[in-house]
Amino acid sequence: MVIQPKVRGFICTTAHPIGCEKAVKEQIDYVKSQGKLDGPKKVLVIGASMGYGLASRISAAFGCGAATLGVIFDKPASGNKTATSGWYNTKAFEKYAKEDGLYAKTVNGDAYSDEVKKEVIDIIKTDLGKVDLVVYSLAAPRRTVGDVTYKSVLKTTGAPYTNKTIDLRNNTISEVTIEPATAEETEATIKVMGGEDWEMWIDALKSADVLADNAQTIAYSYIGPKITHPMYYEGSIGEAKKDLLASSRKITERGVKAYISVNKALVTQSSAAIPIVPLYISILYKVMKEKGCHEGCIEQMRRLFGKLYGGELNLDDEGRIRMDDWEMRPEIQEEVSKLWEELNQDNFKQLTDLDGYWKDFYALFGFGIDGVDYNADVDA
Ligand code: NAD
């Protein structure tokens, strides 16, 4: 079939297998170009099919020569529907890993469930013995525990918050007022995106004796500048991230060194859903590209692995790794704030890198990739 993008707001309901494969290959080539690291050898990546998790998996495999076991939640193609891009990404990753003689297996199921945890442990026991790094990179809208399904919300807390936003359906700038989350909504967001499930994973792996003595684990967070705080850091998702930080300390106390890496704001399927943040990202892209310090997920994760294995961690006061160090440089943030103030419907195309935003967005689904014929018939 001929596969074209079908975008609805911040979601694209189709994905292109060849485009996804090429995008994965580009990430692999980048990591290979950066040289080998003396890093982990057997790695579990939970949330491995897109964004930061996929980039972590690629950095571990092609940067460190690691065997990788991934956990994803993706759909294969059926009828006239394409697979999800995470499914195509994973097929491509496995293909290139195999070509390089690297072990790569993937469990496709709900990472929050006991069944998937058990399946993963069984595979580690049979194939790998023990793992020495666990990357926890889930970004999910919901989590089911027993009979209850918790839904995460992207809302502020305290008072309603009004600021500029971009409507991605029609590329217009408007004001948006975000209502505060109720206490129940914040609690549910913590259940989904906080640290409880990360702790459950590490406890399960530890009691099954599939963690190497020197095993480490890492999960990802975001802080960002003041403009985004009411929406992110001080919003419902920020509360979940504080819980994630608390879990990193509890896991470390229980004998497995757990890190939080605060990553840069980037276009991923998850970040596109947050009000205000896409507008901030498109200004940030412009400023960081102009100053020559822009990175995507793969550059961020390869740099993170360099810090974790042999480099300087430079932890902040809370003990977090700061991969947002370049994003948060004063000269970057001063310029972003200035543009944010000036920005309106008439000038936003000049003041933002909206084209760069959309290019990255389409690329998430394998579209707009150089050298792919999007009019050709492909096997979905
Ligand atoms: P993403 O949407 O690109 O990837 C999320 C991954 O989680 C996918 O592989 C998906 O398949 C998997 N997943 C979702 N639900 C699952 C489930 N129930 N079971 C198994 N797998 C499941 O997200 P991302 O932006 O890469 O986010 C990953 C982490 O990085 C999150 O903790 C996020 O908060 C954090 N982070 C993101 C940004 C950003 O700007 N995108 C910045 C800093 C930190």
Q: How is this fold's topology laid out?
A:
Layout: E1 7-8, E2 11-12, H1 17-33, E3 42-46, H2 51-64, E4 67-72, H3 85-99, E5 104-108, H4 114-128, E6 131-136, E7 142-145, E8 148-151, E9 161-167, E10 172-178, H5 183-193, H6 196-207, E11 211-221, H7 236-253, E12 257-262, H8 277-290, H9 297-308, E13 321-322, H10 330-342, H11 348-351, H12 354-364
Parallel strand pairs: 3-4, 3-6, 4-5, 6-11, 11-12, 12-13
Antiparallel strand pairs: 1-2, 7-8, 9-10
Nicotinamide-adenine-dinucleotide binds at residues 47-53, 71-74, 86, 110-112, 137-140, 220-222, 263, 265-266, 268-271.
Model description:
The protein is of the alpha/beta class and 380 residues long. 41% of the residues lie in helices and 18% in strands. It is built from 12 helices and 13 strands. The strands form 4 sheets. A 7-stranded parallel sheet has the order 5-4-3-6-11-12-13, sandwiched between helices. Strands 1-2 form a two-stranded antiparallel ribbon. Strands 7-8 form a two-stranded antiparallel ribbon. It is globular. The model has no long low-confidence stretch (mean pLDDT 96). Nicotinamide-adenine-dinucleotide binds next to helix 2, strand 4 and strand 11.
Which band does the percent of strand residues land in? 15-25%
Class from helix and strand fractions:
alpha/beta
For the termini, the CA-CA separation is 7 Å
Computed over alpha carbons, the radius of gyration is 20 Å
Give the overall average pLDDT: 96
Question: What small ligands are held by the chains?
Answer: nicotinamide-adenine-dinucleotide
